[in-house]
Amino acid sequence: MAGYSTFFRDVTGNEPFPHQARMGQEAWPDVVDVPTGLGKTAGVAVAWLWKRLNADEATPTRLVYCLPMRVLVDQTSTVVGEWIERAEPYFTARSLEPPLVRTLMGGRVEDDWRDQPDRAAFLVGTQDMLLSRALMRGYGMSRYLWPLDYALLHNDAMWVYDEVQLMGPALETSAQLDAFRRVWPQARTSRSLWLSATLREDWLETVDFAPHTRDLAVLRISAEDRQRVSGRLSAKKVLSRSEVTLEGTAKNAVAEYTESLAAEVAEYHQPGSQTLIVVNRVDRAQALYAAIREVVPDVEALLLHARFRSAERAVIEDQLQQGVSSGEGRIVVATQAIEAGVDITSSCLFTELAPWSSMVQRFGRCNRYGEVEEGAEVVWIDMQLEGKDAAPYDAADLATSRAILEAAGDDVSPASLNPVSGERPVHQVVRRKDFLELFNTDPDLQGFDVDIAPYIRDEGPPQVQVYWRVFEDGPANEIPSPQREELCNVSMGQFDEYLKKSVRKRARAAWQWDPLLERWQRKTKNDSIVPGAVLLLRSTDGGYDVELGFEPSSKADVLDLLTLAEGGLHEVYGGDPRSHARTWVELSAHLEDAKQEAERITESVALPISEAKAVSTAALWHDIGKAHPAFRTALLDAAEPGEGREERLWAKSPGRGRPRYRVVDGETTQRRPFFRHELASMLAWLAHNPDHADRDLIAFLIAAHHGKVRMGLRAMPTEPMPDDGRLVARGIWDGDILPALGMNGVRVPQTELRLDLMRLGRGPSGPSWTERTQALLEAHGPFQLSWLEALVRLADWSASGVEEGAADV
């Protein structure tokens, strides 16, 4: 115990509470039931560091910290990053690399955690971003990277779900995913840990996880804990009812409500102190903030919700962490974003009526540390709303909370609060069949994907992400993709409202990049928009205020934040940026490099011999399709001509830009805009290895190494077709010839590429591609199959890195 206590103190600067010490010394629990403000994050994160440091076999390599609100992510990332920095000497002393700390919040996030599957990493993100990746439909990221994140988040990963009372249907999804991981094999075991002061274990009894709930290990605070933190648990918070009530959501009713509430807040607020107001909707928070600025203009006021760009939100969060500096004090208006995880306290708390579990969390933001000996006040605001007007909550849940508050005494300290009760929330649940269908990342024939939003969030409509650029009539194709600092989360309802408004007699619009057509698609109020979409807006169309966040009625120009970070090119299906390098790399050399890197990586993650052999074989064959005339022509076109280069086979060239795939046959030029070399590689493998024991597995790993050819095989929309009616798929025409080449001491003869396996049933090449891939999914399960797929891709990336390094020498 002394060893862990010293480590905890060195890392956090505090002595561990007894429950935190138990977390580090005992086996992992499944549920942590600890009152708010007692260091659940530190208890988990520092215990994970200690157990990784001591090679605990039950502690996975990746700690995935899932939060219900975007606003909590940066704070958690910063704090845990500081702890890991302080722990670095411990890791260095044992010749270990300290864990990485990375956020997953959409946009262009750092991907070095993906490159190192054996490197410990603390990954923190919102439930939207993390669970969408766990469902193979990652919001705000390339669809072609979906399988990679899926693999790394389902294998050798410890999921921690914090403040589960805010998760909505994501709670059931988290339980279902844990159940699936207990059924299907994994590369290395993963586990789940649910944290909350307001969780009932029976809420986890989903259709597949219910059999496991009776065996869940629950960590609760002990009598020693209670004695240690008695000051916090009994910190007096006087409860009263506001004189203001919200009785409708019409514009005039909300205006009257916010004006009256602002006046009441001004009466309660004490100079030099911090007053916090928590409301249930962003639009009401914005209106209340504006009203408070008018009523008490000399008091510092801050607004915090999830509809800010991270660039502006970071400034607000920094101000919150600096504490109250003004003699007049500070008033903070916030939504549920403040409810969990944000380390903030107040002398006076106003809160709109919410479900009881949320009320308990909000009470924890008043006199959080017992710092106010007398005079800490909690004022609750009644909401006489029914049906949709009660959103984002259910009116019945509000009625339950109202009854509890009306029967409560005048104190809401943690020691006196009623336990969470009520029926288990009912949401749409992802079933095994649904989950397996999500493994196929191809959109349907109309270009749509399965909507996973019902499995992730039900508080309000699904969301999109938006960013602004300066342009006039329409965006140029060369406009850079967004950086994370620029992205703003917006509910679908708010975005619909934005599109309905005109600016300077011009209808507003949004633009979405289409990687297949390689151009922008204009979206108006009459067009359907898929949840999770990343949309470009015109700066002169407005829609954003640096103080209020996303605001549909704002018509002022929006600052283009591109100056803060340099964006990259938008993705195209036929693009192949990893085939561009600083020097020419011969195809045979790259294939051998990939095989060597595959052997190194599979050894580092302790992959069984048979699976490691399949991965290294796939890595050796993965780019053989680059010998195809379409790829050779594109590669040579993009670079400076050189003596003898046309006679050799290359994997990479120093060219830039989007490739122009075509086959020149005499005076005829065949356009191949959707050409995928990995499909040619897979067809060549099948042609030359008909009796290999792992033939189909290796074929899948070869085909899938860019995430663009996986479970299905068909021609792309608008793909050019030959006049003779032969089969076509992804730029390959049935009967194409791949020239002979040598690799790793083996001579591969000339190959005729056959596409009959894209048809259903059995043909000359045997079973269809669909039949083969479905059989692989059934045999290996989704987690193990995705893991092998990821390792081949990582071996390719690593080989490219080695080659880039050699070019610098």
Description:
The protein has 809 residues and is an alpha/beta fold. The protein is 35% helix and 17% strand. Strands 3-4-2-5-6-1-7 form a seven-stranded parallel beta sheet, with helices on both faces. The chain has a six-stranded parallel beta sheet with strand order 8-13-12-9-11-10, with helices on both faces. β33 and β34 (766-767) form a beta hairpin. The longest helix is centred in the last third of the chain and has 40 residues, at 769-808. It is globular and about 85 Å long. The model has no long low-confidence stretch (mean pLDDT 87).
Task: Tally the helices.
Answer: 24
Question: What is the number of E strands?
Answer: 34
Radius of gyration: 29 Å
Kindly report the spatial arrangement of strands forming the biggest sheet.
Answer: 3-4-2-5-6-1-7
Q: Structural class given helices, strands, pairing?
A: alpha/beta
Q: How much helical structure, as a percent, in the residues?
A: 25-40%
Quaternary structure annotation:
single chain
Low-confidence stretches: none
Let me know the largest β-sheet. Answer: 7 strands, parallel
Shape: globular
Distance between the termini: 50 Å
Provide mean pLDDT, rounded: 87
- What amount of the residues lies in strands? 15-25%
